[in-house]
Design a protein that fits this description.
Elements (H helix, E strand, L loop, with lengths): L12 H27 L1
């Protein structure tokens, strides 16, 4: 157990990109819901 622990990066780049995509998709869904509510 004498192997040094390597510090992990906060988030891998592909994970950050996935989170950004998910956030943009959620924002788009909320905007569509708001438009439907305004039309109704």
């Amino acid at each position: 157990m004498n192997a040094p622990k390597r510090p992990k990066p906060d988030l891998p780049i592909h994970l950050q990109q996935a989170l950004l995509i998910a956030a943009s998709v959620l924002r788009r869904m909320k905007e569509k819901q708001a438009q439907k509510a305004a039309e109704a």
